[in-house]
Amino acid sequence: MRSVFRFSLLSLSGLSSRAQAPSFPVMPRELSVFWNGGDALRSRLLDAVSLLLPTGEDFLATTVADGSAAAQQRGTCSAALQAEVARFVREEVTHQRAHRLYNRRLCAYAPALRLEQRIAACVDQMASQSLPMRVALAAAIEQVTAMLAVELLRPGSRWLVEGTSSQAQVWRWHAQEEIDHRDVSIEVMNALGVNRLTRCAAFAAASYYLAYDVLYSAAAMCRADVKAGRLSGWRLAAQVGSFALQALPSM
C-alpha cells in the first residue's frame, strides 16, 4: 500500500483533466453577500474555508517544498516529482493570492480579519512541528480539501449551487486545481519515508483542525449576519437543517 491517504477520487471521471480547468477568475471590488444560490449557510461555509487559505496555502507550499528538498538529500526525490512540486508551489501561491482578494472583500460585511488572525495562530502551531509531521499534515489537508473539491464540482452539488457569482467562479477554478495536484504531497511524504503512525496522527489532527475552524468561522459570520439584520435566526436554522439532510451524506 502506497499510503494511508488514498481515496476513491480517481473513480470520478472527467474531473482530473487539466484541460478542463477554468481560467483564473477576476475578483470585483464588491461581492454578493449570499452568493451560493441565495443560501446564507452554504455561502458562509465556503467563505469560512476561504479564510483558512492564505496562511494555509503558504504552509502547504513551504512544507511540500521543504519535504522535497529533504527527499532530494536522501536521493529519493525523482526529477519528475521535483517538477510536480514546483508546479504545486506555483498553484498554491496563486490560490493564496486569489483568496487574499476574496477575503479582503469579505471584510465589508464579515469579521474576516479577526478570524484570519485566529487561523494564522493555529497555522503557526502546525508550522512548528517536525518536518515529517508537517509533511504528513500537508498531505492530510490536501486529501481532505480534494474530497471537498470533488463535491464542489459534482453535478447537482449541494455544497456549491450552480451560479455565476465571482465567489462561485473562484471555487470552481480552485477545486479543479486541487483535484489535479492532490497526489503531490503524498508522493513527497512517501519519498521522505514518513511512518504510518505519523500519517494517522496527522490525518486525525488535520481533520479536526479543518472542521473546527470552518465551523467556528462560519458561525461567527452567520452571527454577524443575524446581528446586521441580513439573516433571521429562523431562516438560518432552516438552512442548517436542509444542509445537514442534503449535503453531509454525500461526504
What does this structure look like?
There is one protein chain. The chain is mainly alpha-helical. The chain has 8 helices and no strands. The protein is elongated, with a radius of gyration of 18 Å.
List the helices and strands and how they pair.
Elements: H1 40-74, H2 79-106, H3 112-127, H4 131-153, H5 166-180, H6 184-192, H7 196-228, H8 233-246
Helix pairs in contact: 1-2, 1-3, 1-4, 1-6, 1-7, 2-5, 2-6, 3-7, 4-5, 4-6, 4-7
Q: Write down the secondary-structure element order.
A: HHHHHHHH
The helix tally amounts to 8
How far is the N terminus from the C terminus?
Answer: 24 Å
Shape: elongated
Most strands sheet: none
Tally of strands = 0
User: What gyration radius follows from the Cα positions, in whole Å?
Assistant: 18 Å
Secondary-structure class = mainly alpha
Strand content: under 5%
Unreliable sequence segments: 1-22
- Share of residues in helices: 55-70%
Average pLDDT: 87
Short description:
This protein is an all-alpha fold and 251 residues long. The protein contains eight helices and no strands. Helix 2 (79-106) runs antiparallel to helix 5 (166-180).
Which short descriptors sum up this protein?
single chain, 251 residues, mainly alpha, 69% helix, disordered N terminus
